[in-house]
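Table S2 (continued). Query chain:
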Amino acid sequence: MNSTQAKYDAIVVGSGPGGATVAKELTNNNKKVLILEWGSNAPIKGSLTQLALNGGIPGKNLLITDMKGMAMVRGTCTGGSSVFYCGTAFDPPYDMMKTYGIDLENEVADLKKEIPIAPLKDDLMGQGAKMMMNSALDLGYDWHKFNKFIYQDKCELNCAKCSYGCPKGAKWTARNFVEEATDKGAKLINGAKVTKVIFENDKAVGVEYKKNLKTESAFADKIIIAAGGVGSPVILRHSGVYDSGYDFFYDPLIMVFGSVNGLKSNGEVQMSAGIHMKDEGYVMVDLNFPTPIFLGLTAPKLKFHKAFSQPKTLMLMIKIKDDLGGRITWNGGVRKSINKDDKQKLQKGYDRAKKILENAGAKGVYSGWTVAAHPGGTAKINHVVDSNLKTEKDNLYVCDCSVIPEAWGLPPTLTLLALGKRLAKHLA
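Corresponding output:
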């Protein structure tokens, strides 16, 4: 086994929103930081090929969760899944987090000054999104624009590359924070898959990782695991934190489609406007996908005759807050099925979405494949970590969607950025 000679103040495992923020903040405080990332650091090209490599390899970043073939995708590259996300900024569940002794309001206020977080300008909203918004408002819904992580002056209309990774740098991602950290001295090692934490007298002192078929090790005063809702519990479990990886959420979603003659809706900014039906446990929002992803969502429903209808198709997503359950296997498999209550939420959302699309003039409304989004709650606060995100092991912390203590059902990025800032203050 080879050993990285230098000792660091902190090792951050993973470079998604939580890990990238911790790394950037600690580096700003003159800490010596090592970032270990399993995926590639290749420049973002905005290509289907790159999406497939970083989010479509079965068993690595395309995971099947049950016998019915429900899939979940995660991004494995510098910046993590944020490279391919829709860039929607929902405020944290402040009240929920406060019950666990965590106040994130100051961190969120700082983030809103630091990075682009604002509703989409009217001229950047796509034709389809506007049609669905007008229809929903006509039906009495409080449909409104969502905050976006977008440098709107860089955004190009109809580019159709949001899902592939933005090659223009218009979409803010965690990679921005990683680059800030490395510019100020942090070291980034890509292709490094961390397998376990190294301990001395029950204190975390380093990590072991695989790179180029070799086993390497690196050492630091503090270890922060930020490998995501699936990756982190696997590392923790192999490191003796055995309670991780159980009873999690994964925000199941369905797409609802309907065709409108004359619509030319290709390449719209995703999730520009919608509504959070908090009491019913789901969000409804426009979500336009390019043709290859559109085909992937509709083919399992045998909608082959719809293959070339993407430009004239209105697309509305229903994403639910699911009940906790399931387990992550020791090898990183995801085992969870949707229960009856969650199926009813999806059905209720579909029924509402169908009326919205039909009111917008859509014909032949149907739903696509059910898929899962961001897994979390696999290393919950007050169960696996404390309010400072520390595990039962000294010097070992977790900072990603794993720590979210309850199901929530909304994009977690802003919450994870705030948790990263808060943890960095604690560690500095």
